[in-house]
Amino acid sequence: MHTEFLMGNAAIARGAAAAGLNVISGYPGTPSTEVLETTAKINNGSIYVEWSVNEKAALELGAGAAYCGARSMVTMKQVGLNVASDPLMSLAYIGVKGGMVIMVADDPGPISSQTEQDTRHFASFSKLPCFDPSSVQEAYDMIQEAFEFSEKYHTPVLFRPTTRVCHGYASIEVKDDDECVKNTPEGFVKDSSKWVIFPRLSYNAHIHIEKRNAELSDVFSEYSRNKILPAADSSCRKGIASHGISYTYVQEALSSKNAPKVLKVSTPFPFPEKLAVEFLSGLDEVLCIEELDPIIERELTYICGKYHLNTRILGKLTGNVKTAGENTCDSVADNIADFMEWEKKSSAELPAAPELPVRPPVLCAGCPHRASFYAVKQAMKGKKSVFCGDIGCYTLGNAMPLDMVDTCLCMGAGVNITQGIGKVEPDTSCFAFVGDSTFFASAITGAVNAVYNQADMTLVVLDNSTTAMTGHQPHPGTGRTMMGQVVDKVNIEAVLRGIGLKTVETVNPLELDKAVETVKRVAAEKGVKAIIFKSPCAVLIKPEKPYVIDSEKCIGCKKCINSLGCPGIIISDGKVMTDSSLCTGCGLCSQVCPVNAIGGECNE
Questions:
Q1: For residue range 505-519, what is the model confidence (pLDDT) as tens digits?
Q2: Which of 320, 370, 439, 452 has its CA 20 to 30 A from that of 394?
């Protein structure tokens, strides 16, 4: 063993590799992305690494590998599990041969997600075991144990870190190479009675699953990651139950206190019932501190009823813990102080926090999506239009002054929402904006649906040749894979023509006049048509010389600011200027300026 300073996601990747990982697949999504990327970096060629087109594809590939006896891992964020839920629910009945861990990162806050969805519900819904690490070290160790449980019980298992575990850093103990497991898959053995899902097989499998989970509840009651910490004072009749990063906060809050009895739950499903009964014995009240939903609180309430225990369970359901958002060290300390009737730390003892600047998220300076949105806005000025957005950098097109995202639900949904609005309001010009990565992930079927059902809409593909929001991962349109292979690009225009679109035009959005003219012409056509705005992500290209504003010509109209909202244009000492540290020289502002005051020659 040796010590390394690692991010939580890197620790998970290193732990999986130490467990003999053979195959890893996934779809990028914060806060999960770095697990697969770290695996690719440390890969010595023994692990197959893949960014799949979506989470469903990733999970099915991982299942196939596990059918062969390989140890596989699938990575995604919490909303990605919705996409993968179809194969997940059936795979729970089929089972696996090799260990299979489905790593689903939850995002309390939410910090970078649509929802605060709690994957622990999916564990009980799918009847799959779930592991919930509380620290970087535990994530490293627990992922290895998760593979062992999966292989022993022939079931995929869920591994559910949250953002503060995924993105936290710590010095941890990791195995040397000679201590790591080497797994050699047996290969796929044909057996239709096992691998082909039929009603009779599912019925028998359901009986087995219920029996197995009852057994696992007992096993998890003995599992070392689930534990009871005794009270400092044996006469104390109060207790605290927690999990994950919240347990770490609890430990910090109690570090200098006369601590009550504490229950740490590392396997929320199957719940360690016997351990919980032992914990509840002799307690009058228990406070449950957890993110996101009251899973532990409900389980303990149920157990109290089942075993006729006269213990009052408090938490989110009783208003003792907040019902949404992240827990913090301070919020947990306050919850415990209220519960234990301890004096809270006075805010007067703390230094005043500095006032933070307001920094709303915006599209990067030079982002081609800004030009795409502006071109459509100009082309459709004065016309009844609706602009349906999607998940990605371009969701930020909703911000003023662009104000070009009227709806955003989930990945790929904009294409179908556009169709729904068009059916109800046929006099509306309906646009669906989608990025190139999201097009491959989940918008193709929506486009097929539009063609088949005779929709009247304009599909706008914002092709910046990367998966920008999550860190510039490759996708089928980039021509490379995570294994370093150079492959043929999947051509979006060819795909659209292949499903029946007659009009598909590709244009550079930074050529503003041409882009506006293209939108006017294409949008006027009936039926399903598409515009592909193709220009690389500003972060991935070498910027041109920054543009400058001629103060002699500038009339101070601020149209460049009020129309585009580019962070590369600022006001300094009352004058409009470009910020040379941000400006990429894309030239969009120069095409908007009514007096040609913005030029491409940088002052020396």
A1: 999 999 999 999 999
A2: 452
